[in-house]
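Box 4.2: Ligand-aware structure prediction
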Amino acid sequence: MNQPVLIAPSLMAANMLCLKDEVQAIQSAGADWLHLDIMDGHFVPNLTFGPDIISQLRPVCSLPFDVHLMVEPIELCIDLYHKAGADFITIHAEVTSDLRHHLGIIKTLGCKVGVSINPGTSVNAIAGVLDMVDQVLIMSVNPGFYGQTFMPSALDKVILLKKMRHDLGLNFYICVDGGVNFQNAPSIIAAGADVLVAGNSVFKQKNYKEAIEKLKHSS
Ligand code: DX5
Ligand code: ZN
């Protein structure tokens, strides 16, 4: 995929008091996807929002909804987020011992399939499911909060995944999530990322359009 990098602003860094305005502003500013972080206070220490918020945002925003589930157990909730309007549903390798089964549920529902790994999990943990995913989300922070510091170990994972994708003849997005900023974006893009998730570096900036363009064209 030698297209320009896509930017997926993470809604958890937006102003929660005016979500409708925020998603519309981010769409006008040129965001490619809307990244929706679902946190359960169990798999990760924080809580965000759930399917009701997503289903209310769905009619006011036409960006692809990229739902990142940081939830355990995963069984009960995949269908809820599909019904709420998710385009992509990403689940963590750490939450299931039968990743193929759970990714298969997402596929059967007709959503794009995503798998994510935490900083402490190796790419090997997902090697056996790469043939069935549309995106791999590499966490470059321990999930739970926006505004954390990027962990450079994510870059080696991006490089390895890009090679595996090529060697296996596959075609999935390589996405990087956590601590992406104007300084490190060029090296993340150079490593081979197709999508940059950005909370702080978009929603906490004064001018969303400038921030998105700066991240996109920083290579
Ligand atoms: C972290 C979330 C991220 C986060 C990104 O657990 O999955 O999507 O909101 O925010 P920044 O870019 O500020 O790290
Ligand atoms: Zn995320």
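In the box above, the bound molecule is zinc ion. The helical segments are 19-28, 51-57, 78-84, 99-109, 153-168, 185-191, 200-203, 208-216.
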